[in-house]
Amino acid sequence: MQESIQKLVNEGKMLPLMEEFYTIQGEGYHKGTAAYFIRIGGCDVGCHWCDVKESWNADLHPPTATEKIVQNATKYSDVVVVTGGEPLTWDMTLLTKELKNRNAKTHIETSGAYPLTGEWDWICLSPKKVKLPEEAIYNEAHELKCIVYNKNDFKFAEEQAAKVSEDCILYLQPEWSVREKMIPLIVDYVMNNPKWKVSLQTHKYLNIP
């Protein structure tokens, strides 16, 4: 990458854009809501079950002017979800400032593995064992979404739930490839521990992006 472009990326004036699309939010608290998604490339968390591994290498995704990303997003919706990859790999300050200047509601889906930047109306924290969240983000999270791949993930979820604020909404979501095996266990767990809610990837059931 050219040094001048890399400087703009480091400053958040350009971002490695993997894809952007208008769709229905499929997961968590805002499921069923129309939203514009901005998927930013770059992630070194490395979840083995990740369903967007093509997002990991930021070099594969062209640096795009943040201003252009904002213009595209706000043509379609006043709810903009920034996801990845791991979007907090990059400085989100300018992106969220410009989105909010256009009266957009800013949502982020993050592992919390990097310091929180940007101004967010909704933070969905989805922590991963391999690279734990920065401590500061726990109190900022509106929603904690723990992915359940095996039985050990219930223990991890409880450890993470102990760190968020009392107002944070707690979700358990089956990893898609093992959903048939894990959904009954999650249902039983939530019935016995009703502070939790079940989250499903409803967009996959609806066959939409």
From TrEMBL:
Homodimer. Binds 1 S-adenosyl-L-methionine per subunit. Binds 1 [4Fe-4S] cluster. The cluster is coordinated with 3 cysteines and an exchangeable S-adenosyl-L-methionine. Its cofactor is S-adenosyl-L-methionine; [4Fe-4S] cluster; Mg(2+). Substrate binds at I24, Q25, G26, R39, T83, P209. S-adenosyl-L-methionine binds at W49, C50, D51, G85, S126, P127, K128. [4Fe-4S] cluster binds at C43, C47, C50. The keyword RNA-binding does not apply. It comes from the Bacteria. InterPro entries: 7-CO-7-deazaguanine_synth-like, Aldolase_TIM, rSAM, rSAM_sf. This is 7-carboxy-7-deazaguanine synthase. Pathway: Purine metabolism; 7-cyano-7-deazaguanine biosynthesis. It catalyses: 6-carboxy-5,6,7,8-tetrahydropterin + H(+) = 7-carboxy-7-carbaguanine + NH4(+). Pfam families: Radical_SAM. HAMAP family: QueE. The gene is queE. Keywords: 4Fe-4S, Iron, Iron-sulfur, Lyase, Magnesium, Metal-binding, Queuosine biosynthesis, S-adenosyl-L-methionine. It comes from Aquimarina mytili.
